[in-house]
Design brief:
globular, Rossmann fold, 7 strands, 11 helices, single chain, seven-stranded mixed beta sheet
Amino acid sequence: MADAARDGSAYFRGIAAKWEPVCAPVLESVPLRAGAMLPSELLLFASLCLETKVGLVVESGRKEGYSTEILCRVGGWLVHSIEKAVVEEADKRLAAAYGGRLALHRGDGRRLVPTLVDAARRTAVLLDGPKSTGANLMLPSIRGAAVFVGIHDVPLLGTDHQGNSRRASIENGAAYFTDDPEYVAQFGRYDRAWMDRSGYKSHRDFLAVCCVLGIFRGGYKQLTEKLPKST
């Protein structure tokens, strides 16, 4: 089990390092926005999208559009973004900047995500609403047609403010979590401004309550074969 954990860490850190030169300029140029995911989470998600050559990203939960903007800038894929509580000004900004490769949807991700995942277009899914445990409940309906799925907000066992989503994620076969100490040591520097803004002094304190990305295998054969076995 320990060897599998080390293999998984090396694999995902290697993918993030490979695509860091592409992703870093975007992460450093997009302004931070309230309630956004950590840049280090988005580094891994976007890197996996680039590595697996996805053609479509389905994002559920955009709020003010920080992750949406990063995903639109990093790759050449189409982005379908879903938000239940739409921020009108944010949507106007996003539509003006990325309208040709971004489709903005209003509604419940639990209903809309399964209708937008398209296996033929190599779809990656990012769930940030519903979060944590609610997102885990969606996995059976989407992962078979997706390249991979990322779920935001899966903090440590016993510390989850939204229900025990880490346990659910482990039971659902999560391949990796971005609170891996080696990942944080290598890429946590991208989160410094976010942490300063939120008043946290260390990643450990911050990641204990929120902002951990869980990565789950999808049905895409190449990624399934490459991913280390779950720990």
